[in-house]
């Protein structure tokens, strides 16, 4: 697969992800319109955003600045195989 380098298409991809997430969230909330559903969905989205920040920013800046993670699978491989200091 070719690497995406066009700024225009990167922005289009980001907007499409946002619209897809918004559509799925609205559909879920409208299907079960309760405060509990809204609160749990909001909490889940916030937690996944924080995990994403941790997985890429914190791991690269504070854990191992020499390793560049290409995705969550490479992060999990790194965490599972990295030798811990004794």
Structure description:
The chain is mainly α and 86 residues long. It folds into two domains: 1-33; 48-86, no CATH class. Helices cover 74% and strands 0% of the residues. The protein is built from three helices and no strands. The protein has helices at residues 7-31, 35-63, 72-81.
Quick recap:
The chain has 86 residues and is an all-alpha fold. It contains 3 helices and no strands. The protein folds into 2 domains: 1-33; 48-86, no CATH class.
Total number of domains = 2
Largest β-sheet summary: none
Low-pLDDT runs of 5+ residues are: none
User: What series of H and E elements makes up the topology?
Assistant: HHH
User: What overall form do the CA principal axes indicate?
Assistant: flat
Question: Got a strand count?
Answer: 0
Strand content: under 5%
Task: Kindly report how far apart the N and C termini lie.
Answer: 40 Å
User: Would you tell me the overall average pLDDT?
Assistant: 86
Radius of gyration: 17 Å
Assign the structural class, choosing from mainly alpha, mainly beta, alpha/beta, alpha+beta, or little secondary structure. mainly alpha
Helix content: over 70%
Number of helices: 3
């Amino acid at each position: 697969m070719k690497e995406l380098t066009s700024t225009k298409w990167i922005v289009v991809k980001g907007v499409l992800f946002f619209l897809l997430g918004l559509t799925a969230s609205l559909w879920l909330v409208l299907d079960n319109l309760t405060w509990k559903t809204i609160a749990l969905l909001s909490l889940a989205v916030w937690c996944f955003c924080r995990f994403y920040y941790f997985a890429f920013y914190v791991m690269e800046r504070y854990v191992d600045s020499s390793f560049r993670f290409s995705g969550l699978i490479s992060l999990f491989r790194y965490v599972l195989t990295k030798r811990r200091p004794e």
